[in-house]
Amino acid sequence: MMNLDHELMMLLGGIFGVLIIASVIGGILALWYSGDKSNSTIDNLNARIRGWWMMCIICVVAVIVGPVGSVILFAVMSFFALREFITLTPTRRSDHEALFWCFFIFMPVQYVLVGVQWYGLFSVFIPVYVFLFLPARSALAGDTTHFLERAAKIQWGMLVTVFAISHAPALLMLDIPDYQGQNIKLLLFLMIVVQMSDVLQYVFGKLFGKRQIVPKLSPNKTVEGFVGGVAASVLLGASLFWVTPFSPWEAGLMSLAITLMGFIGGLCMSAIKRDSGVKDFGGIIEGHGGMLDRIDSLCFAAPIFFHLTRYFYT
């Protein structure tokens, strides 16, 4: 079990404080606009808030359990994200054995490597060994139809939903001077900045958005929303420097890197959905779509944040 020190208690208290305020506001709006046509928007908002409650409670339980709980939590997230990705990018029967290896061998091994803190193998297992194994296994099946396309789909799915996401709990393996035993705060810092960046970009876009960034790809993303959301997220990250090994300006720069990569991740995932003709990857989380819809920004932000922190602070 993890000891909840004063700083961690304050951070968790702030998260749930925001959720309580959001729930109260959502309830008031639902009563105020009861029977109004715009109530569907408010219902969607409240569904999203309930989804956030569920996700935050699960995260807190994982934090309390300790590093093992965090690794298991992200392993489960990777499992559902990979399932959604493979469902949306169909493969052939001849790929089923390769997919079995992905779901039940390679994914567990990757997270075991995170759990035992074996950085050397964790960092190359999927990009090297799995990368070489998967097309070889598909080739042995003898099916040449769209071979390169099928191999690329499976490999990209493994890289983005397993390898990239596993960098989030891998933050717990970093040995940062004068910060031992506190790495769970670094993981929470990453999660808060990434998720709040998405929310703030949406809010600023709704309030001030006029110029679309990539209309054909994501019509809801605007220049004003992007600039306002990133700026606000950088300020938020800088204000949370006290739970990190960073100074205020370093926390701000780290937040900038996180938000920029998160934005790119969201665009890439949107491109996949548009190409497949769907709005969401799934419906596992009420008001949020699928697991991959919720962690699309994290897929790109987590590896960059991990390696920046490892390079400059260990």
Molecular structure report:
- By secondary structure, this protein is mainly α.
- It has one domain (67-313).
- It is 73% helix and 0% strand.
- It is globular, with a radius of gyration of 20 Å.
- One of its GO terms (molecular function) is nucleotidyltransferase activity.
- This is Phosphatidate cytidiltransferase.
- It holds the Pfam family CTP_transf_1.
Which features does this protein show?
Phosphatidate cytidiltransferase; globular; 11 helices; 314 residues; transmembrane
Tell me the count of domains: 1
* Count of extended strands: 0
Major sheet attributes? none
Straight-line distance between termini: 25 Å
Residue fraction in strands? under 5%
Helix and strand composition category: mainly alpha
Which shape, going by the Cα principal axes? globular
Percent of residues in helical segments? over 70%
- Low-pLDDT residue intervals, each spanning 5 or more residues: none
Order of helices and strands: HHHHHHHHHHH
Number of helices: 11
Average pLDDT score: 87
Radius of gyration: 20 Å
Write the layout of secondary structure elements.
Blueprint: H1 6-32, H2 39-65, H3 67-88, H4 96-115, H5 119-122, H6 125-140, H7 147-163, H8 183-208, H9 223-239, H10 248-276, H11 291-313
Helix pairs in contact: 1-2, 2-3, 3-4, 3-7, 4-6, 4-7, 6-7, 8-9, 8-10, 8-11, 9-10, 10-11
